Amino acid sequence: MSLSTRQQIRTLVRSRRQSINQEQQVIHANNLMTRVGELSVLSTTRKVALYLATDGELDTLPTIQWFWQQGIETYLPVIHPFSKGQLLFLRYAQDTPLVLNQYKILEPKLNQQAICPVSELDIIFTPLVAFDDSGQRLGMGGGYYDRTLAPWENTDLGPTAIGLAHDCQQVDTLPSESWDIPLTTIVTPNKIWHWNK
Fold first, then answer.
1. Strand duo 106-108 + 98-100: pairing
2. pLDDT-based confidence at residue 175 (cuts at 50, 70, 90)
3. Please, are residues 13 and 169 in contact by the beta-carbon 8 Å criterion?
4. How far apart, in whole angstroms, are the C-alpha atoms of residue 197 and residue 182?
5. What is the pLDDT of residue 197?
6. HEC per residue, 80-104
7. Per-residue model confidence (pLDDT) at position 1
8. The model scores a pTM over 0.85
């Protein structure tokens, strides 16, 4: 399928999630925290990466705060200042200073002492624009997460990738490209989706 089709899906699903009102966003964010807490993989988890919501995305702050309460180290993505298209993951705590990146998304201020190598993360919770019944993920188009996850695909090493999305971001089928990394788990406010890859 053409890139224009992918862009049409992005436009459609982004408008869906942007139309969720503030009251519903709060309910969805709290439900997400509950669903994430039900993940069996958390029993051995020490370090997780999340992201701060933008553009109508599911608010991750209640989940981040829950991880803090559990004593699980939490990291946020930072656009790499030198390696184009790459992400770094920096420790995120209540007193971490945040700055706006080139996409107007809040990220931790660059601090080399706070960087966690991707290989040491247990879970990377990934944002997505849309997902389908087979676990295919459609991102914003920058490829940051696909590049981050590619070295760990088809191995038992490295982090587990888990997608987070509103229920309304599900579509029947997504057009996939060779570089797309499908997910084995996606969590929405109402359901945990699992696929065997």
1. antiparallel
2. confident
3. yes
4. 8
5. 60
6. CCCCCCCEEEEECCCCCCEEECCCC
7. 43
8. yes
pLDDT (0 to 100) of residue 176: 82
| Sign of the dihedral through C-alpha 91, 93, 99, 103 | positive
Taken in order 58, 64, 69, 70, is the CA torsion positive or negative?
Answer: positive
CATH class of 3-194: alpha beta
Q: Which long-range contacts (CB under 8 A, 24 or more apart) does 95-99 make?
A: 98/52
Q: How far apart are the first and last CA of the chain?
A: 22
Query: What is the domain partition of the chain in residue ranges?
Result: 3-194
Q: Which residue has the tokens 């944002």?
A: 127
3-state secondary structure the chain: CCHHHHHHHHHHHHHHHHCCCHHHHHHHHHHHHHHHHCCHHHHHCCEEECCCCCCCCCCCHHHHHHHHHHCCEEEEEEECCCCCCCEEEEECCCCCCEEECCCCCEEECCCHHHECCHHHCCEEEECCCEECCCCCEECCCCCHHHHHHHHHCCCCCCCEEEEECCHHHECCCCCCCCCCCCCCEEECCCCEEECCC
The tokens describing 63, both together, are 């989940």
